[in-house]
Amino acid sequence: MKKKALGAVALAAAATLALSACSGGSSGGGGGDAAKGEISYWLWDANQLPAYKQCAEDFQKANPDITVKITQTGWDDYWSKITTGMASGTAPDVFTDHLAKYPDFLKTKQLVALDDAISKDKVDLSQYNEGLADLWVGQDGKRYGLPKDWDTVALFYNKKMATDAGLSPEQMGSLSWNPQDGGSYEKAIARLTVDKNGKRGDEPGFDKANVAVYGLGLPNSDAGGGQTQWSYLSATTGWTHTDKNPWGTHYNYDDKKFQDTIAWWASLVEKGYMPKLETTVGANMADNFAAGKSAINSNGSWMIGQYTGYKGIELGIAPTPTGVNGKRASMFNGLADSIWAGTKKKDAAIKWVEYLGSTACQDVVASKAVVFPAVKTSSDKAAEAFKAKNVDVTAFTQHVKDKSTFLFPITDNAAKIEGVMKPAMDAVIAGKSPAGSLTAANEQINAIFTK
Amino acid sequence: MTTLTKQPGPGLSASSGPRKSRKRGKPSAGFRGIGDLKIALLFIAPAMLGFLLFYLVPTVRGIYLSFTEYSILGDPEWIGTRNYERIAKDPLFWNALGVTSEYVVINIVLQTALALGLAILMHRVAKSTLIRGALLLPYLMANVIAALLWFWMLDYQIGIINQLIEWTGLPRVAFFGSEQWAIPTQALINTWRHMGYTALLIFAGLQAIPNSVYEAASIDGSKAVSTFWRITLPLLRPVLVLVLVVTVIGSFQVFDTVAVTTAGGPVNATRVLQYYIYQRAFNEQDFGYGSALAVILFLILALVAFIQMKFLRGNQSDLD
């Protein structure tokens, strides 16, 4: 019965609760800080596991007293495991941290500030791509992570479909967008949409109820971030998620500029250019792209490996369209490695984090051509490694070169905000509520901050 | 057995039964009663320990936490009944209550009706152990596996069932993706999974009905249908009540199917109570609020079980 599985959950919860009672004051840190022994390291991306295993081996050679035990856990379970681990005293010494998550850890003092170690060991923060190191400074002015990689957004598209539609790579690379008529971006999306009778989205007689290929893929409605879905558009209107970033305390989902962007995005569903929300439950946008069901996917640079890995698809990668301000925009997200305050091997953990943030390890990561490392020189090496695999990643790196990036919005209460925005965005993309309904969601969110 | 050693006059064999029972009424009975109690406690202890440790303590702690603000990291902070006041005004709670009720009604009505039918078929027609065993197969599958299996088979794009639907010329159905279908779909999946087991329970109840009653009925000229309504169903009542109480409680606690498929969406269509509790506690780190929701669910279940027992007279049988 359901009771059994629930029993297990309840049991786990009970165990967590019981254990949390014992380890209440674990945030003090301290303890035996010897730079030796075994330290645990967690990450969620299986694609990056080989690179970091290599880093750990190299690190152990240089530091024979320390062994690093790497555990990879999928994103869905990763955060609840870390949180319950922190409460029960079994969290990893070092873990890959995310911008949306670390504010909550700071609030409960679960992370080790790295400033003293960094100044002592003279870690050069200017070696990282601009802005990445700043993301990991808390409201107290202290540093809680060392940058490891970054990502931007671009358009993956099916080259053959584009050629059939009469769109050259040059045209795909110079699209423009505005929230009123969608600009040449919407024209391209419409042109790439094909119904079951072979009629294109911009031709008379197009049957939007029976679409074979959608111009633009839809992963899900997303919550309030829109990292790969719409933030590359909304940012060109001058809109920002919050009053300031990082550490904003007021969200702007009631802004007309934002709501117009979302209204345009949702209208693609209504026009038959983008799949209905209900068809995306359980579906994977990238796999549907591989199956030839959509022509363009806006997605992040961490997906390069997956998109280039599909056989039989001639892949093009175009930069995101220029927007209202005449420029391109992409969210700039960066991961970092953080140390848990409950670690018993703080010195060893610091050594490992500094190694992860060093050119030596990031060059190894670069050579595997899976992500862009945070160190500038390693980033360039990654671009070369991609090139060696015949993948042109300029669409992603260009954002950094042109400084057309904006930082991932960092605020407290990320999970609660998602709890409000997810159903609200679902309703808009499903065509059930107008974009104006997001004003009510915004009020709910801002109430969380004023509480 | 052990009481024998306390008998005066050792060497008494089993044939001394009458004497033993006579002795039970004598003054020494009090002493022996305490001995029984000790042994009984010894046997109860493991289960009791488990109950105390894994049920009672967490329940009491959960009730305590429901009056606090608690993020699992850090200490709970007493805030009185504020969580309950917030719940009363929380549209998502009321939505969850509605969604859960819809699920329970579809799930229980179908499950009980189908299980009853299956039990009667098992009783009358399918005497083969193989077939009876096969009915239990879905129940032996882990809930999450069953949910994922159906999730794929019913997928809008690649699901085999939508492929079949399209071949018949009908439009594809977004079983999990559309707001109307998401809850009925999940209710049906769990009906499929649990009906074999429920049928087994009812089947056991059917076997407890003495054949003589049926014989008498057939001598009086009762037809199969009226025998079912006038004899089988009334005599089955205590078992049916038990089955209903247990399955309704289980049904209200639907969680894993939702968690691995729709995760509360689309919009709020599948945000059932248990999932909402999980979301508030584990995702949003609001364990106080989650605990208060859990206490409310507990009260609802206690009330439902009480009403069922009371009005369906589950503790009385019409036999004899």
CATH topology-level name of the largest domain in chain A: D-Maltodextrin-Binding Protein, domain 2
CATH C-level category of one domain in chain B: Mainly Alpha
> Which CATH first-tier class of the largest domain in chain A would you pick?
Alpha Beta
Task: Output the helix-strand order of chain A.
Answer: HEHEHEHHEEHHHEEHHHEHEEHHEHHEHH
Describe the structure.
- The complex is a heterodimer of chains A (451) and B (320).
- With 451 residues, chain A is of the alpha/beta class.
- Chain A has 2 domains: 28-150 and 334-393, 3-Layer(aba) Sandwich (D-Maltodextrin-Binding Protein, domain 2), CATH 3.40.190; 153-332 and 410-450, D-Maltodextrin-Binding Protein, domain 2.
- Chain A contains 18 helices and 12 strands.
- In chain A, strands 1, 2, 3, 4, 10, 11 and 12 form a 7-stranded mixed β-sheet that branches. In chain A, strands 6-7-8-5-9 form a 5-stranded mixed β-sheet.
- The model of chain A is unreliable at 1-32 (pLDDT under 50).
- Chain B has 320 residues and is mainly alpha-helical.
- Chain B has a domain at 92-311: Orthogonal Bundle (MetI-like fold).
- Helices cover 71% and strands 1% of the residues of chain B.
- Chain B has 15 helices and 2 strands.
- Chain B has a two-stranded antiparallel sheet.
- In chain B, a hairpin with a 7-residue loop joins strand 1 and strand 2 (77-78).
- In chain B, helix 10 (179-207) crosses helix 12, helix 12 (224-252) packs antiparallel against helix 15 and helix 14 runs antiparallel to helix 15 (287-311).
- Chains A and B meet through helix 1, helix 3, helix 4 and helix 17 of A and helix 3, helix 8, helix 10, helix 12 and helix 14 of B.
